[in-house]
Each structure stands twice: as structure tokens, then as C-alpha cells.
Amino acid sequence: MAHFDLPLDQLETYLPALPEPEDLDEFWAKTLAENSVLDLGLTVEPVRNGLATIDTFDVTFAGFGGHPVRGWLHLPVTRSGPLPAVVEYLGYGSGRGVPHEKRLWACAGYAHFVMDTRGQGADTPDPDPATGDVAAPGFLTRGVLDPHRYYYRRLYTDAARAVEAVRSHPAVDPSRVAVTGTSQGGGIALAAAGLVPGLVAALPDVPFLCHFQRAATFTDQPPYVEITRFVKLHREHAATVMRTLSYFDAATLARRATAPTLFSVGLMDRICPPSTVYAAFNHYGALRGVRPEHKQISVYPFNDHEGGGPDHEVVKLGWFARQLETTA
Asked: Which of 92, 159, 193, 248 would disulfide-bridge 257, Cβ 3.0–4.6 Å?
């Protein structure tokens, strides 16, 4: 394992052109509007978690197309008044797990919602309209020949609806909701930051789903290699694939974000190469005037895709507390 991407001084100024379809904003406005008229169908049921300081609730809400999406809502047992909330999205191939598995933000005194990932976790199926389409194994090329049928259209919409669901809970202060996640979860957090107005913060760690054009040709590691394998077999679809991906590039959607952000990056990360992370960071908020002092990135020079791990969690907790102080 060694540094293989651009030197750090070049990463810090790396600002590649990101291809944007002319109808990108219209595409997402229409997608979200079509789903916003659907009843949220929110159910919140208490569950036993074996923990003395955290209450956990099994949540179901209507995501894309009204499909039921599951999640865990964790709340501190001792609480008063509406709480700031953190919505967490998950890494590639994983679901919400068991109730006590992810609880950091609730331990710190916040509401913490862990969204299950459709088709990837055990609890949320993905009614797939792309059934019968050609695709490589995995999720990255599922429905990739049509942006309307692409898997991440459904997942990004779920992410936006999750914020809506959390904001509707009486224990949550709807004006102080943040998004976070690692790898795929970090990419989803960036997409949510660009699609959902009024977030108080975005905390993406070693984000996936960024700068597809570079990632697909720069790394041979999964999951990005799914794109390569697909186009290798279906050369005639190469341009179509890249056009579809341009609607879902988290670096592009992040240009529309307004919330302060804290990124993390591992400079030896071969799964999400540093240049793809910096493309998202350097473009973050560019269309909405996010000031440089509201953007921070923690760099871990000798780390791979684990990024800063538990050490970075300490950084995140301190940074988020400071953000809340400025908005109090």
C-alpha cells in the first residue's frame, strides 16, 4: 500500500470539470416532487436493545415510489426538548444491522437515525423496475441504461425522505438535522446535502459515488470495477452509462449543498481514490456560495478506505458540537 494518486498539494486544488446533464436540476426536482406527494406512512415502534442509556425504535417510512424503508431511531433515555438529529447512511452491501450496532450519535446526546439500504440490507427490499435489463453483479449498474430506472435514483430519494421522516418526529428539532455516512453512505450523504434544503451539517467520510468518470478508469477495486466490467462486455453502451451516472455523481450534487461540511479522506484509499474525494470536497457548495471556512477535510496520509476510523469519530463529534453552537 502506497500513495498512488495526485500529491496532496495538487489534490487540494483539484477541480475537475464535472459533466452535468442540462436537465439535471429538473430531473431531481421532478423526482422529489413526485415522491413528496406520497404519504410518508411513518411508523415508530419501540424495541428492546439491551442498553440502559438509549431508547431504540423500529421505524418504517415510505421511500421512493412509496416502497417501505426501514431504519433504527436511537434517542437518549434522558432527554428534554427537541434534539438535534444525525441521519446516517450505510456502506455498500450493508444494512441497518441489529439495534445496538450503530449508536455513536445517540450516545453523544443526539437523535440518531440509521437508514437501511434498499436491496442491500436484510430488512428493506428493492422492487426493481430494471428487472430484465443487462447489469454487472452488484448495484452500481442496475438500471444504468436509463436514469429513470437507475438504482441510485431510488436510493437517493429514500435518503431525502429519511430526512423528512426524522424531521417529523416530535423528539427532533427539524431545523438541526445533519447527514453522515462512510463510503457509499458518504456519497449518499453528499447527494442528500445537495437535494435537501436546510440541513445543519454534512459529514461524509471517504465518500463513494464521486467523480465517476475518473473513478471508473482509475481504480480496479470494487465497487467501481462493476462499471468497468459492464462496459467491457457492453461497449456499445459506454456513452449511455456515463450519461446516466452523471445524474447521480455525488460530487456534482454536492455543488448544490448549503450546509457546512466535514469530509475525511485516506490518501492510500484504493476503493475511493483521494482525487475523487477531493473532487467532491473542492466542488462542494460551489453553486450555493458555501464559504471556505464552512468546509473542512481531515486527511489521513497513511490510511486506506478505513480513513480516520475511531480517531475521526472524535473529530466529528467536536466539529458537530461547534456547528450546533453557531446555530443555537
From this structure: 193
Known binding residue 92? Answer is yes
> To which H or E segment does residue 299 belong?
strand 295-300
Is 261:202 a contact under the CB 8 Å cutoff? yes
pLDDT in tens, 73-109: 999 999 988 999 999 999 999 999 999 999 999 999 9
pLDDT of residue 133: 82
Residue 84 identity: P
pLDDT on residue 130: 73
pTM exceeds 0.70 for this model? yes
Query: How far is residue 249's CA from residue 195's CA, in Å, rounded to a whole number?
Result: 12
Q: Number of helices (H) and strands (E), helices first, in the chain?
A: 11, 9
Alpha carbon distance 55, 214 (integer Å): 43
Catalytic residue among 116, 205, 249, 269: 269
Domains of the chain: 8-320 (3.40.50.1820)
Dist. CA 308–CA 317, nearest whole Å: 13
List 183, 211, 264, 312, catalytic entry: 183
CA 276 – CA 152 distance, rounded (Å): 18
The DSSP symbol for 156 reads H
305 flagged as catalytic: yes
Distance CA 72, CA 99 (A): 7
Mark whether 269 is an active-site residue: yes
